[in-house]
Amino acid sequence: MVNQLRDTVTLRHGAKLHNRIVLPPMLTFSGKEGGFASDDTINYYKARSQAGGLLIAEYHYVSETGGPCTPPGIPEQLGIYDDEHLDSIRAIASALKKDGNKAILQIHHGGREAMGRAAKGKEVLAPSAIDYSFLSYPVREMTNEEIEEIIKDFGRAAKRAIDAGFDGVEIHGANHYGIQQFFSKLSNHRTDKWGGSLEKRMSFPLAVVKEVKSVIDQYAPENFIIGYRISPEEIHGDDIGYTYDEAMQLIQEVIKYELDYIHLSLWAGGYSAIPHGGQKSFGEYYKEILDDKTKLIVVGGVFDEASAQEAVEKYTDLIAVGRGTLVDPEFGKKIDEGKGDTIVHEISPEQLEKVCWTPGLLRVFTSEGQMGLPPIPNAESIKHLGSNDNFSPSTSATS
């Protein structure tokens, strides 16, 4: 049978999604000092409670050393590194779940990308002590003891997500953050059990998955969801951190822990993107290696019902709609109601009044370069409504 957007999807552990639309994790630029949700954060998520059947909240850093990964001068990235954050994440879970859809919390460690930590004069940890030309601060190589503690922190974060009422967690192994840094030979130069060969560079990601799954098995409801997000290749010209084939080898090990889904973070090319040297799309390659109980999520380039439908027919089980839900928070609801033709495809001053963007999001998407994020369609129409400040972070700001 051909996948349809309004299909009910049952995940491995029993959770049911009422459609194939996913709200992907996207930084809201709205946190308060210390990584706590603000009223702006909660209003943003309330507005997107019907964006899809599966709703993934932005990345939260699991260790005090893991963030914030936002530059100084704008609201902070959110945290989940101690119990003081429980009220913050409870509020996010409640906002996302208010209309009956499943809420997921994305958890990560920033590694070298903890630029907000650096700005506060604190030490930044990474797999290896490399002098990165694109960073304005030094990084220190993690000790074995620090690595082991960070792995435990992922488990502690998963327990907090359970206690806060989330329906699942997504382990963030993408977008050049800590887990990806361990997997990449460009950023992992270690010679101990955490680095060197491809197998050893898999050690940290797999240890995190094992720890999180163990905590879920012990404390979570039976239908609690666990997913893993990956950038399916890391290639920068002649510099190769890992190929799509190596990434798939990692995922073949990850799925042995019986996850509910794998989430591909795609930038260029959208949901039909093809890997370097490949003959098929990333989605098609991954569908060949995933068992029939592990669902695939692909994100990239969907702004209307037709492209979302094409994605689930040809490339993936579930389609994540990022910028499309920034422009129209009711993307999934409109498809559910048979009103896909009313989805708004671009931002405008009139639509801006309806989208519940945080002040930080408005500032970013009206700034020069938009902090390296993919552009919002028709963003020039709202540029006069935002700040004239420019940002110069070291890397793209994304969940």
Automatic annotation (TrEMBL):
One annotated GO molecular function is: oxidoreductase activity
Q: Where are the stretches annotated Disordered?
A: 376-399
Per the record's keyword annotation, is Oxidoreductase included, yes or no? yes
The protein's matches in Gene3D superfamilies, at most eight in alphabetical order, are given as: Aldolase class I
| Pfam families linked | Oxidored_FMN
Question: Superkingdom, according to UniProt?
Answer: Bacteria
Under InterPro entries, the record lists: Aldolase_TIM, NADH_flavin_oxidoreductase, OxRdtase_FMN_N
Q: Does the keyword tRNA processing apply?
A: no
Q: Which residues form the NADH:flavin oxidoreductase/NADH oxidase N-terminal domain?
A: 15-339
Task: Kindly give the PANTHER family that the UniProt entry links to this protein.
Answer: BINDING OXIDOREDUCTASE, PUTATIVE (AFU_ORTHOLOGUE AFUA_2G08260)-RELATED (PTHR43656)
By what name is this protein known?
2,4-dienoyl-CoA reductase
